[in-house]
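Hey Z.,

So I finally got round to the guanosine-5'-diphosphate thing we talked about over coffee. Here's the setup:
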Amino acid sequence: MSTISKKICLFGDFGVGKTSLIRKFVECQFSDEYLSTVGVKISRKLVNVSTKYLHDGQNLQLLIWDIEGSNKFKAVAQNYFQGSKGAVIVGDVTQPETLNHIGEHIQTFLAVNPKSYIVVALNKSDMIASEYLENIREMYQFTNQINILDTYITSAKTGNNVDEIFRTLAHRLI
Ligand code: GDP
Ligand code: MG
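And the result:
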């Protein structure tokens, strides 16, 4: 089976859990320690995407770029977006201001890659009572934009919806 490679970016404010989501997806691990990302880190993960048209599925190598979205890095971040076919824009449900920046991060990314697809991850869902989560998800839908595939409530700690965000994107990239 042939393998194709696609670049995707994780983008969002400092501390929302970008590095943790990637680590959970790629290495199935989580740590409470903060491992500061210096510059940009690229991880790889091979996924098999099956569709009704491809019976054996298609191997897809995801090249996952971990990019900081704080003001300090904003200008640099745009350079890292070049050639990206998709992005996961991440906010933290325990820090409302990071959720309010999601719209801006989407525009920053789409300005460089107008035809790319985006999934929104509202992370750290394990820290909020479940009755509030659906409300939060409804507030941050962004589905008025065709490039936005979906919004997920995620947790890098429990693994809630972590595979789903990457698989939703991967499926569109085939
Ligand atoms: P980044 O700056 O966006 O890369 O954020 P990190 O992945 O480094 O995470 C920042 C902090 O939040 C770390 O202490 C992580 O352990 C913690 N963290 C990340 N994701 C989650 C999560 O889903 N649940 C909980 N409880 N903590 C998380
Ligand atoms: Mg990081």
